[in-house]
Amino acid sequence: MIGEFSMSNIPAIQSAMTGIQSGISKINRNAADIASQSVAGDAADLTRSLIDMRQNQLQVEASIKVVKTSNEVLGSLLDVKA
After folding, report:
1. Phi-psi region for residue 6, left (φ > 0), alpha (ψ -120 to 50) or beta?
2. Whole-prediction pTM value?
């Protein structure tokens, strides 16, 4: 039954939302690390944190694409059903 569907009940979207939340949490941690390292002055740790932040950004972007694609597929399925 279509009426019982919600976006959060679709496994791909659930996984993507977890990826988004995890990525944002890690980005916040990276930002805190970068802020503290810029005071301490350790270039190697600062570089590692910047690389990690970029990886986490890519994780969030990929997860957003999964949500968008799942939404499009669901919309197409509903159009076919109607």
Report:
1. beta
2. 0.78
